Task: structure prediction
Amino acid sequence: MAPSAPPKAQPAATPTALWTAAIAQPATEFAATALPVLDGQLPADLRGTLYRNGPARLERGGVQFNHWFDGDGAVLRVQFDGSTAVANYRYVRSAGFVEEEEAEQCLYRGYGTLPPVSIWQRWQTQMKNAANTSVLALPDRLLALWEGGLPHRLDLETLETLGPDNLDGLRPSDTFTAHPKRHPRTGKIFSFGTIPGGNATLKLYRLSATGVVEKTGTIPLSGIPLIHDFVLADRYLVFCVSPVRLSPLPALFALSSFSDALQWQPQQGTQIIVVDADSLEPIALEAADPWYQWHFGHSYLDFDGSVVFDVVRYPDFATNRYLKEVASGHMTTPAEAQLWQYRTDPKTARILDQQCIIDRHCEFPIAIGQDETAITYLNVHREETAPLSELFSAIARFDPKTGLTIADAGAGCYPSEPIPVENAANPQQPWVLTVVYNGHHHRSEVWVYEGQDLERGPVCRLELPGVVPPSFHGTWVNM
Result:
């Protein structure tokens, strides 16, 4: 197997990046508000709703959360009708959020944060469902997702929290990934959760298009790994189980946070597991070289029966420490990933071919298309080598035929994950939406791009009524 690309040399970190002001204070909710246009014009054919989820509060009762993943989730909704855009923003009121809000103090464990109590009290505290990672839009509700527990049901318009959602089949102890996949042909939703134990169990779910559990399956795992995302390629699911394992006793007794108890064990390699999407039974398992990934990109079943998938590949688990440091605004740990493409034999899980297709740090890939011609949109830095202290400052379009096109947001502006949106009037020219924190004016904006012409800059910029901290994932629902 070819080794992963080595990380590029990084300049010294600086603590003054403008984006840090976006997380310095807890975000403030806002009610439905018509958005003023700062520049350009709203496309008449842009009709539907953008939802985004992310950590909006990284402090409680004077206690600073120790990891970006621990921030209380808040959901942004922006509805477009072709002439106006209306936005509202609201925290997900999980039971833990409500209890801490009333007590005005940190009461729960997080992924990387322990409550400020004695060690004898700490081990009795529970993990808080932060509901802060992604969203899944269903016909009658919106789900706020956090992979350590059940989804939370929100009202599609008001974003009111209606409570945990068991999808008519999940148990209270089940977990549900923040990255469910909807089958493009059948509309079925595939998902999974990791159930801890001496050796964890991978629990698989197939849901109806309306969000009802129709079938489950289980696969035993070695140790307790961290699995964030997976591949759906026609009739196959593919899991890449990286060699990260939880040291269970320190985490169980709160001697360390869950994050700090995760260990990089490269000698185990990465396990490739192929699953039949119909039966939810494993077909094959094969070992590969070690790497870590948070996110997969484009995937498809090729004409020769092989499964092709793109993955944002890190050489190790340093990314977890980097993301921990984001919560403080002072990043010192290099953690770069490149976009790799793998071809696997689903009958054996053996890797047939691999290549690095974007050799610069990138993340949050979302693709349009179902075959080798699919276009991928993702985040990159403005420059190939950026200071460690900077978040992504550009979005990009990757065409397998023509390569990478970068839309530089400008120094001090930080776009979120780009969401491609179908343009019914011109299917060859999708819209691309991103929420941008403008550090020069301490405000958040919604930028609309023409997907085939990113380098021209946004065709419309809208001002949000309050600062929306950098978020993780979103989705689009057509009107």
Summary: Helices lie at 95-103, 119-122, 248-252, 318-326. The chain has one domain: 18-478. Confidence is low (pLDDT under 50) at residues 1-14.
